[in-house]
Amino acid sequence: MTAARSLTTVAELAAAGLLPEAKRADAAAVAERYAVAVTPALAALIDTDDPRDPIARQFIPDAAELVTLSEERADPIGDLAHSPVEGIVHRYPDRVLLKAVHVCPVYCRFCFRREMVGPEGLGTLSAKALDVAIAYIAERPEIWEVILTGGDPLVLSPRRLQAIMERLAAIDHVKIVRFHTRVPVVDPDRIDAALIEALKASGKTTYVALHANHPREFTVEARAAIARIVDVGIVMVSQTVLLKGVNDDAGVLAALMRAFVENRVKPYYLHHPDLAPGTALFRLSLAEGRALVESLRGRVSGLCQPAYILDIPGGHGKVRADSLAVEEADDGCFRLRDFRGQAHAYPPEDG
Ligand SMILES: *Cc1c(COP(=O)(O)O)cnc(C)c1O
Ligand code: SF4
Predict the structure, then answer these.
(1) Ranges for the Radical SAM core domain (predicted)?
(2) 102-157 pLDDT, tens per residue?
(3) Which residues are catalytic?
(4) Binding residue per annotation — 104?
(5) 107 CA → ligand 2 middle, Å
(6) 95 within ligand 1 shell (Cβ under 6 A)
(7) Of ligand 2's atoms, which has the minimum distance to the CA of residue 104?
(8) Which amino acid residue places its CA nearest to atom 9 of ligand 1?
(9) What is the CATH topology of the domain spanning 72-317?
(10) What is the mean pLDDT of the chain?
(11) Ligand nearest 113 Cα, by number?
(12) HSE of 324 in the Cβ direction (CA atoms, 13 Å)?
């Protein structure tokens, strides 16, 4: 099972029976533009008899990705505007993103960083760039939390992860190290003792935020991988992207949130889909999303309630999409107030 390789080309997807003949030409055009990868674990999970399979929809290239709308942007949440040094995004005073790697085990068709990740993306931080990034953190006592994301940091070898963790361990003011990953679900065998050991740093608290979008992603192997992480005392939280045709259904969302809780992963964020290029096929309106989230209230335990979050286009940070910071205007548009109190239109005006 572990010996199998990920499928990364249209020919490989076709050979695995995951791409019908009629869709291959368009898929090839998509693959020219955006990275493709499907792990063996996910390939096995796809129901090829179901043309609307929610797992396939997340990972198999679709002709609709070739259409980019005017409101979509290459950097939808404004990472680049808040990147003081390579590999660091510093938007909020007390926490930074550390993007050591821009590779993922799978490439999600809706990815908000799709212009930065992949074999032709921003790559892996050089030793020198990593030194600069670590120095940036070390020099700023207000940084309480470091969030390793990317890309998916759990594609790094235990040795490289450990080297990063040792350097963070040496910085007194950093108390929390958080990893954002999809690996426990998409490549569960990778979660072995050496990798888990590398996630810990002396004197720091480790959190792992698991990205999963459909209850079927919780296979026996995925559940076991999650248990291995939680069993060593690492706290896990969830991250889900609300996606049309995948989980935009109260029953599916409820089952997904229950699956997280049953596996000791506390539901954390449900993200409204970002304005990434070629992802209109996945987007529902903010009004639709708010109605869905509202329907979860009372229906499932409070433990199963994630915060519904929208990243304000342009890099103004996150806002709770079901809170008073979001006001519906007469024309069906919304006004969002960012954490600094500034107002923004949503969907944003062009530009
Ligand atoms: C999302 C994000 C974070 C983390 O935000 P939390 O609300 O703490 O989960 C931190 N920095 C940046 C730049 C982000 O985009
Ligand atoms: S795992 Fe995350 S960063 Fe990687 S392609 Fe999926 S959404 Fe993008």
Answers:
(1) 90-313
(2) 999 999 999 999 999 998 888 889 999 999 999 999 999 999 999 999 899 999 99
(3) 91-92, 95, 104, 108, 111, 113, 274, 311, 318
(4) yes
(5) 6
(6) yes
(7) 4
(8) 269
(9) TIM Barrel (3.20.20)
(10) 94
(11) 2
(12) 1
**Half-sphere exposure in the Cβ direction for 130 (13 Å, CA):** 16
Reduce the DSSP state of residue 234 to 3 states and report it: coil
Pocket test for ligand 2, best of 108, 147, 271 (most atoms within 8 A of CB): 108
- For residue 2, pLDDT over 60 is answered with no
Query: Does residue 295 surpass a pLDDT of 60?
Result: yes
Question: What separation in Å is there between the alpha carbon of 181 and the centre of ligand 2?
Answer: 8
Residues contacting residue 323 through CB under 8 Å, at least 6 positions apart: none
Q: Whole-model pTM?
A: 0.96
C-alpha dist (Å) from residue 301 to 210, 274, 304: 20, 27, 5
| C-alpha to C-alpha distance for 219 and 45, rounded to whole angstroms | 9
105 vs 8: CA distance, rounded Å: 10
Q: Checking phi first, is residue 146 left (phi over 0); if not, alpha (psi -120 to 50) or beta?
A: beta
Cα–Cα nearest to 125, from 101, 94, 145: 101
Ligand of minimum distance to the alpha carbon of 148: 1
pLDDT class of 1 with cuts at 50, 70, 90: very low
For residue 230, name the pLDDT band (cuts at 50, 70, 90): very high
**Res 124: pLDDT:** 87
Q: Looking at residue 314, what is its pLDDT?
A: 86
Distance 39 CA to ligand 1 centre (A): 27
| Closest ligand 2 atom number to CA of residue 180 | 2
**What is the C-alpha separation between 198 and 250, in angstroms, rounded?**
37
Give residue limits of the domains in the chain.
72-317
Q: Whose CA is nearest to atom 5 of ligand 2?
A: 107
